[in-house]
Design brief:
- The protein contains 4 helices and 9 strands.
- It has about 130 residues and is an alpha+beta fold.
- It has a single domain, classed as OB fold (Dihydrolipoamide Acetyltransferase, E2P) (Beta Barrel), CATH 2.40.50.100.
- The strands form 2 sheets. Strands 1-2-3-9-8-5 form a 6-stranded antiparallel β-sheet.
- The longest helix is centred in the last third of the chain and has 8 residues.
Length: about 130
């Protein structure tokens, strides 16, 4: 299981990788392994500003559908269009090609409440 050091982790198993005032958001390697084969990603809030822990879409695996939650307040700038035809990228490369949305961060200080790699690993018991 992969735990990159350059991202922050939310308790709902989303990650955020800041790049200045913007950031990429996706689900963790642990989350994708628990969900199983991902078949569809539905982002309902493109262009909207979503509060921390607000739902910005859903992810569908063969056996379940889960809400996607914002790790920090932010405006959705871009959706990973590659996921429309290749949702399995989340399974194969959750921290790279499998990113889900790009956001502008409204309150950078909220990242301080998220977990680093070591804390997340302990949180999930790995």
């Amino acid at each position: 299981m992969n735990f990159p050091e350059n991202v922050k982790y939310a308790k709902d198993h989303e990650w955020i990788r800041p790049e200045g005032a913007e950031a990429y958001v996706g689900i963790t390697d642990y989350a994708q392994s628990e969900l199983g084969e991902i078949v569809y990603v539905d982002i309902t809030a493109e262009g909207e500003t979503i509060g921390q822990n607000g739902v910005f879409g859903s992810i569908e695996a063969v056996k379940t559908v889960s809400d996607l939650l914002m790790p920090v307040d932010g405006k959705i700038l871009e959706i990973n269009e590659n996921l429309e035809e290749h949702p399995e990228l989340i399974n194969s490369d959750p921290y790279g090609e499998g990113w889900i949305i790009k956001i502008s961060i409204a309150d950078p200080a909220q990242q301080d409440g998220l977990m680093n790699a070591g804390e997340y690993r302990s949180f999930i018991g790995k």
